[in-house]
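Notebook, p. 212. Picked up where the previous page left off. The plan for this session was modest: take the two constructs that came back from the sequencing core last week, fold each one, and keep the raw output in the notebook itself so nobody has to go hunting through shared drives later. Recording the first one now, exactly as returned: residue sequence, then the structure token string.
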Amino acid sequence: MEKNKIKNVFVPGAITPDFIAKSIAKHQSKTSIGAHDIFLGQVRADIIDGQEVAAIEYTAYEEMANLKFHEIREATFNKFNLSCMHIYHSLGKVGAGEICLFVFVSSPHRKEVFEALHHVVEEIKSQVPIFGKEVFKDDSYQWKVNK
């Protein structure tokens, strides 16, 4: 099991489809895994007070956020029978339509991955100190409220 070390989950800018595909491909050699589940968080072009969101600029207290990601990860490994888990979150500007959060969980069985993935994403949204500045097409902005 891949646990214990505090990892840096942050990547600069958007998480690319190529990065996601390569992450999945690396697991073909892990033949004890029977199921994977993936969550991809994408920046929406919300309309707020008549203005369209063009991007979200993410900032974080990285050390504190990485520690919180680590705690969530460890608690999830203790609660579910997982083979591995990968979490990546963007820092910096991510355009509407681009991926800002990639969570990838693997287990010998499918039921575990479905439940674990839901648990992890909800914990991330409620606990990790990451801040998003919604940047509108005219470059004005407001701070995002997590829902």
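Okay, moving on. Second construct, recorded in the same format:
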Amino acid sequence: MTLDMRMTRRLPGTPEEAFDAYTDAEKQKIWFSILDEEPGIVEIEVDLRVGGRQTAVWGPSPELLFRETQTFLEIDRPHRLVTESTGSSPDGATLTTRIEITFEEHEGGTLMTVVQSGFPAPELRDFFVGEVWSGAFDRIEAYLTRERDRERSHG
């Protein structure tokens, strides 16, 4: 039996802006470390097509790198994205899960909902809820807020 998790966050911006922030390599490189006091290593490549892959390598130093490869199974920009994700931590542990993300317009912003399935243990699922996705949402929100503020000051 495997475990699932589901999280939703309201983000500033349109579904298109949120989808692109999540899938565009150059935008990801910005938000991955937007809240870090000291920038670490962030390398991301994206081939955004069904069957294509996104590869991300990140961490505080070359000795402590996390790696994730997502294979795109479904892409319906800007509404839905489904991937199979295989990640590894610096200690060599690996995890493969399925991630379904939806982006829905909601009260002038976007509801981004993540459903991730395939966790082998509750502790791992809870880590993804408490750390991985809450951190990703915080970073994407900070990026979209900064972009919106930048547009207002230049518009």
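Notes on construct two before I forget. Residues 122-154 form the longest helix (33 residues).
Flagging for discussion at group meeting.
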